[in-house]
Amino acid sequence: MSKLMSLFSALLCTFIWGTTFIAQDTGMDEIGPFTFNSVRFFVGFLAIAPLALVFERERVKKSLKIDKKTFLNLVILIGISLFLGSALQQVALLYTDVANAAFFTIFYVPMVPIIVFVMYKKKIHWSIWPSVFLCVMGGYLLTNFYNATVRMGDTLVIIGAFFWSTHIIFTGKIIENYNLPLTIGAIQTLIVASLSLLIGLVFEEFILLNILKEKFSILYAGVLSGGFAFVLQIYAQRNITPAPAAIIFSLEGVFATIAAWFLLNQILDINNLFGCLFILLGVLFSQLLPILKKN
Q1: Is residue 226 a contact partner of residue 17, using CB atoms and an 8 Å limit?
Q2: For the chain, what is the domain count?
Q3: Which candidate, 141, 237, 222, places its Cα nearest to that of 181?
Q4: What is the DSSP secondary-structure string of the chain?
Q5: Which domain holds residue 155?
Q6: Is-contact 159 122, C-beta < 8 A?
Q7: Cα dist. 135→2, 12, 269, 279 in Å?
Q8: Tens digit of each residue's pLDDT (9 = 90 or more) over 133-187
């Protein structure tokens, strides 16, 4: 039952991430990427922090008594990884289109098992590799990348994909020992908001009127994506290891495509449909083949 709830949490989280791609792109019409991220993640912090105080305060006290240093080290690594991944992705959208950004972001899928193997010498189930291949091919077909030109922003997205990978890996590590998804989510959003604000104040114009013009994009990307979706990710990784989790999260490309079709009336061609199918097959392979082997 707990594994099923984790899968549901991962899918809901991925759905929110996928639909947020549109808000991330349109939310920079009047403000810069770091201003957008600082406000977005601070809104996410305000949404989560009260819940963490109500439901996890006692557990936090007990956990920090046992091993405060390890918890703080991991949560800081998670916050910095999230800051770098989201910042590079947000800035990249100024220099590339959504199709390229969506495709290159999926590169965190093959990066996660490789980094896990190198860092922790953990054996990866063979089903992960065909699943990774299907997800990357699905992303390629889904975004119509073959019709696009490679831009400077694509390099930023690939570097960002590395930090999305470390975020998934460190999240898996911290949730093994600390069952505090709301607290971890609140701290990481505060770290991202703070670092984004520092850079935004130096390099961008922080104008309240312009921020208010983007309030709907900020609220959606902040409360749902920056706040609750990342908490759902943390909860999901309680029972799903990083490599299969990364494959499930690649479904954000499918949800982004469906959202663009539904909200923006973008046309789905046969390649897009095959892309959705490939990613779905990749997710099913990663989840079902290890279970079949056990049985």
Answers
A1: no
A2: 1
A3: 237
A4: -HHHHHHHHHHHHHHHHHHHHHHHHHTTSSS-HHHHHHHHHHHHHHHHHHHHHHHHHHHHHHHHHHHHHHHHHHHHHHHHHHHHHHHHHHHHTTTS-HHHHHHHHTTHHHHHHHHHHHHH-PPPPTTHHHHHHHHHHHHHHHTTGGGS---HHHHHHHHHHHHHHHHHHHHHHHHHH---HHHHHHHHHHHHHHHHHHHHHHHS---HHHHHHTHHHHHIIIIIIIIIIHHHHHHHTTSS-HHHHHHHHTTHHHHHHHHHHHHS-PPP-HHHHHHHHHHHHHHHHHHHHHHHHH-
A5: 2-294
A6: no
A7: 25, 18, 18, 4
A8: 888 888 888 776 655 566 677 889 889 999 999 999 999 999 988 999 999 999 9
Q: Look up residue 269 and give its amino acid.
A: D
The letter for the amino acid at 241 is T
